[in-house]
Structures are given as C-alpha cells and as structure tokens.
Design goal:
alpha/beta
C-alpha cells in the first residue's frame, strides 16, 4: 500500500478549500495545520467544521524536524497551509526530503496573497521582488528589506511587503518609516491590504501621515509601496480606496 503526504493550500478564507482538497483529506489519518508563517483570519475550530476532521497544530520545529515525512511512510498525512502551499521555503524542503525517503507527495494549489493583491487595481505584471519585513528586537533592527524597494523603484515596479507574524500595523509602519529613511527612500502614498479574500477585507490607499493616525488595520495585512510612475488606469483604481 502506497501512502501519501498531501500539501494542501487553504486559500484565503475558511470556505476556500477546494473539492480536490476535501477528497484528499477524506483519505488522511492525520491532518496538520502549519501555524507559524501567517496570522490566520479565522480559527482552527472554524476550519475543522469545514473539513470535518480534527486538526493538529504544527509549529516550525515540527515541520523542519521532518517527522511528518516519517509519518507519511505509514499513513496518509495532510499538511494544511494558508494561501498557496509552496510560498515558504520549508514547504519546498518537505517535498525534497519526501522524495529522498521515497514518500509520495501531492501538492493541491489554492489562491494566495499574490492573487488577491490584483484587487488593488495595480497591474500584476508591474510587481517586482517581494520583500519581507521582520519584527525588530532590541538588539536586531534589520532594514535591508528596503533595498528590494529601491531595486524595484529603479525598474518602475511595485513592491509587496509581507510582515512578520504577530507584528502590529502601527509598529510595522514605524519600522518601515525608519528603514526608508536609512536607505534614502521617500515614502508617499502606500497601499495597505487587510485580510484580502475574507469578509473583513479592506484596502487603504493613504499618505504616510494619514496612516500614522490610522488605527483601523487588523492582522493579517500587507503593505504595498507603489512604483513612482503609476499608469492612469492604476491611478483611477487606487483613488477608489483613497
């Protein structure tokens, strides 16, 4: 009997799981939920109700320890991942390790933040490299992610900035501002996307000063630094969120 490790993308809300994924889950004896790369817009109980299965939370140690691959030698195992299943390097490593140990892997795709940001009206092919903003610690305040913004601006591209799990918006904005100053980047109007693809979805297009006084952004969210020369269609679309 050949067992399988399923890497299943959940999409952006608790009802977005696909029929293909539900069929796969019906064969699984064990179902894990990766819970360390994103702030979930819903809770585990809501997801359990949708899939009609008990879920075990899997932290970084559990996944990087590869015990899930070991389990998949003896039974069908699923790892549920918010959004798209292969966004994080760890998940790609799972595939490589599974192949090495002779474990079959099936990836079931779904929508991610990269799909949802098109709703801002920005032209998707004008996005450059994606930047990740880590949460600062007293002894470690990295600003190097702003170099990606600088590179993107040099080729007239937008920058999607993904923020560290647990990072409050007001704190992220302060970090962004200080990082921009350090790299001589002028920030003007930014796009902030909250909980895209869910009932709590909001898109804001505001000046930095406005955002400083703005307390309405809840997790999960992302920040977009638009390119310096917006297309007139992009301008029209963004004004609706101004």
């Amino acid at each position: 009997w050949i067992f399988m490790l399923y890497l299943i993308g959940l999409g952006l809300n608790e009802k977005a799981i696909s029929k293909q994924a539900l069929d796969a889950l019906s064969k699984c004896k064990r179902v894990y939920l990766e819970n360390y790369t994103v702030d979930f817009p819903y809770n585990k109980v809501q997801l359990e109700e949708q899939i009609n299965k008990k879920i075990i939370l899997a932290d970084r140690e559990k996944i990087e320890g590869l015990s899930i691959v070991d389990e998949a030698k003896k039974l069908n195992v699923a790892l549920l991942i918010y959004g798209s299943p292969l966004m994080a390097t760890t998940h790609i490593t799972l595939i490589q390790e599974s192949r090495e140990f002779g474990v079959k892997v099936k990836v079931i795709q779904n929508a991610s933040i990269f799909d949802a940001i098109a709703e801002t009206g920005l032209q998707f092919y004008k996005f450059g490299k994606t930047a990740s903003m880590p949460a600062w610690k007293p002894s470690f305040k990295p600003t190097s992610f702003m170099e990606i913004v600088k590179q993107n601006q040099s080729i007239d591209a937008h920058t999607l900035i993904l923020t560290d799990i647990g990072l409050e918006f007001s704190t992220a904005l302060k970090q962004l501002e200080k990082s921009a100053q350090e790299h001589n980047i002028k920030l003007k109007k930014l796009i902030v996307c909250q909980a895209l693809g869910t009932k709590n979805q909001k898109i804001h297009y505001k000046e930095l000063e406005e955002l400083r006084k703005f307390s309405g952004v809840k997790k999960p969210y992302c920040i977009i630094v638009p390119c310096l020369k917006l297309h007139h269609i992009e301008v029209q679309a963004l004004e609706a969120y101004s």
